[in-house]
Amino acid sequence: MQEILEGAPGVVSNANDILIYRATPVEHNARVEERKQALRELLKKENEWIRGTVQKEAVHKLKEEISK
Asked: What domain of life does the UniProt record list for this protein's source (predicted)?
């Protein structure tokens, strides 16, 4: 998450806290939506990686059981 937020203009991230600031409410809301979308994409990639890893482990275990 830190990589997604770090360096983004108008965004400060520290541990679990995220501060997003802009001059106007319209600009602020647009920046919030941009960061939310970036975080959603990161979460999607992580979930795909986890699913792939779990599937590979399951297939490996099945192959081991079959070969016994």
From this structure: Eukaryota
